[in-house]
From TrEMBL:
GO cellular component, one term: early endosome
Protein name: Spermatogenesis-defective protein 39 homolog
The organism of origin for this protein: Eptatretus burgeri (Inshore hagfish)
Spans traversing the lipid bilayer: none
Stretch forming the signal peptide: none
Chief place of localization: cytoplasm
Amino acid sequence: MSKLAMEEDYWNSSKVKGFDFGDDIGQLTETKRTMGRMHIDFDDDLVSCVDMDVIDWSENVIKARRPGNERGTIPDPAFRHQEKFNTGLRRGSTSSQTTPSSLFSLGQPARVSGATTPLDSQKRHSVTPVGSSQSISDMCPVMDREQLSSSAPRDMDSLQAENARLTRLLHSGRICHAGTEETVWKMFKNQPYALEPFRCLRDKMNLLDHAVKLHDGNIITAILIYLKTSLRKEILFAELISRPTAVNHYVSLLRKQADERTLLELLTALGRTEEAALIEYKQHLTMRDPEKRLAFLKRCISLPFNSEDSMHIQNQYTLLDHQGIIEHNDKKVEAVGQLAIFKDHPRKASILFMPLVTTLFYCCFYHYGETEGTLSSPANLKKVFKISNKQYLWTALAARSQLHMWEDVNALLTSKGWFGGTKKKALIGFHRVVEIVSKSNAPFTMVNEFVGLVEDAETRLDLALKHKCHCVVIETLCQMKDQQQLREYRKQVEKNSPEEMMIVDALKNSQIRW
């Protein structure tokens, strides 16, 4: 009893008093200044510091100055707590529920950054009414300035923590997920699915096998993309060896992604060395530096190609080497202006990286008269690269006709006979010769001669009509014994012309059996 009396005396004699809006205005001003120095945002009437969090005044914790209330009035929930606190002070109650430190923490939830969380019972601080004689340090002894200034919203931290917790549960297998076959069917039906839960190698391969059985390329590709990011290359390549369908899709995927390094490693692991060498060889197409491309082609010769492909790469290397030398020399000659051919017909483009036929045309155009021992001689190119006679004749005729060098054209088509005589001969056929020289506006006598040398009668007649070679037309119609067409053609020639007289003589010739 004596102890209870002592406690009652202590509480009755305490300087702590209840909330009163009639307190001195000076005390309120001093409290505002103190709180401002501690970076606390406060209302004109109330200040709260509960676990370094800002209390949402819209909840049931405390509500002040509600619209419609007069200044200094407190709504019922907070007013009841205040009355209970004042009653406890008057009665000297020792209950923890009526102490200043628990006035606004009677099990009520505190809203922190929009989320409602229960207050920690070990970190509850009092919210002392403004005007109390107790200092701010007594009201919030645990909080300092840094803690008060760091009371920021923690929604992102909460979300990250929840995400980490769910990730741990997923990896631990405590969250159930669909099976491999069910997941593939969801992919096929365009339903939401997840491949990340499948972490076992057997499950991943089962996914791929089910997709292959379903014969859906999109699903196979999607699973291969997941396997590419979740498995090591060595393991994935070893598993794909026994799955040719998946290998084909994976090769196609790597080609579309332009992942040449992984593609080369895959083809090498599968034993497809020649295909891997071809992919590596294609890289030279992107090189624009002649020296770098030349060095790369030299290295590609040693790649595991077959003999025919290796020969082509060797020829390509030799051609690029020749082109570099010819380009270097012709630039110097053109700059000095020693040769008339470069003055009359300036070069329009570089010869580097050009095909063999273009290089041959270039040499026939600018270096036709050079001896075979010269690197830029057309004869030298023909010998080194084993160009066929037909290809050489066609290219040389086009180059010399463009320059109107008709003597060279005749020389190309003239060959020696058995008894030392000469005759015209064209390996490509004279109908192609006519097409080539006619595009360069060859003389009519030359065109007429070459048209008459066409072997096929129908072709010869068509070319003769096209180029108006009347003598050839008449001779061909007589050879074909087409009297009716010859009479019709008589109407197209001029009257009393040599051609008309030739037609009349042919129609009167009794030796021709029409």
